[in-house]
Specification:
Elements (H helix, E strand, L loop, with lengths): L1 H13 L4 H27 L11 H8 L18 H13 L3 H7 L1 H9 L2 H33 L10 H8 L9 H30 L1 H17 L26 H25 L7
Helix pairs in contact: 1-7, 2-4, 2-7, 4-10, 5-6, 7-9, 7-11, 9-10, 9-11
């Protein structure tokens, strides 16, 4: 089937042949941010009222996706820019930024013309975005795992409630459900990155890659600044989850439904636009 030929082509040229960049970005970020977490945990553990904070594989992953607390604009409270959280997702966007248009100007254009079905090309690119998003986050997780192995940090899935309380600055009213927290770690960041990469693909094909990247950056920054359920980035900040903000936090199920729905909308709208748009006009 032509769709699978196009998809195989994209996985080969757009992922496997660029895997070194996924490894470098994933492992590089993991070591950088994990080192920062280790230094912070050591400094906090030296405070008598805090006590020892245990480092585990699970705690390091949670640290990467903690995000920031709900921001309430105030002259006395400056906005806490979530640089680490933003970089994790924007680097995933950066990896998939230019390949679709480069492919369209090269061998991908020949394949597209021969196939006679623009929908196959578009759906293959969407499938490539999904696999690429998973591949990037997998490299990030493997980077965290490697850091733990190098520095002899326990490879445990345990999420420390005490650590979370120190991060947010207050005590939690109930215990963190380990299984649900891990389900959140495995699902929500992946679904958000898939949506962002699909959105970037659509905007990039219509207006240019830089605009696609800019839209994602603006959406993430707006999510960090404004805690609203219709802004998808909020669901990928654990500090804003219902387990931390019990009375008003983000519910994982709602986030899953929103992100899947938005991704499907992008795929459908992109398919319609791509079918009608003269994408070969430059030639």
């Amino acid at each position: 089937m032509m769709f699978f030929k196009l998809w195989k082509h994209d996985l080969d040229y757009g992922l496997l042949r660029k895997m070194i960049f996924y490894v470098l970005l994933g492992f590089g970020q993991a070591f950088l941010f994990c080192r920062g977490f280790s230094s912070w945990a050591a400094a906090m553990s030296s405070i008598p009222d805090v006590g020892e904070l245990t480092e585990t594989f699970g705690n390091h992953l949670l640290y990467l996706f903690q995000g920031i607390d709900e921001y309430i604009p105030s002259p006395d409270e400056p906005f806490d820019f979530p640089s680490m959280w933003l970089l994790v997702f924007l680097c995933g966007n950066l990896l998939t930024l230019t390949y679709p248009l480069r492919d369209l100007e090269g061998i991908g254009q020949q394949i597209l013309v021969r196939s006679g079905r623009r929908e196959y090309w578009w759906l293959a690119k969407c499938g490539w975005e999904i696999v690429s998003s998973f591949g990037y986050l997998l490299m990030l997780a493997l980077g965290v795992l490697s850091y733990c192995l190098v520095f002899r940090i326990p490879i445990k899935a345990e999420i420390s409630q005490r650590l979370m309380e120190v991060m947010i600055g207050w005590g939690l009213d109930r215990s963190l459900p380990q299984a649900e927290v891990w389900l959140w770690l495995l699902v929500i960041p992946l679904l958000l990155l898939i949506f962002l990469n699909l959105l970037q693909l659509l905007v990039g094909l219509v207006f240019g890659p830089i605009w696609g990247f800019a839209v994602n950056g603006a959406l993430l920054l707006l999510s960090a600044y404004w805690m609203k359920p219709f802004l998808p980035g909020n669901y990928a900040m654990f500090r804003r989850s219902i387990w931390v903000l019990i009375d008003r936090g983000m519910v994982m199920g709602n986030g899953v439904a929103l992100l899947i729905g938005e991704s499907l909308c992008v795929i459908v709208v992109g398919g319609v636009i791509f079918h009608r748009r003269d994408i070969l006009k430059k030639e």
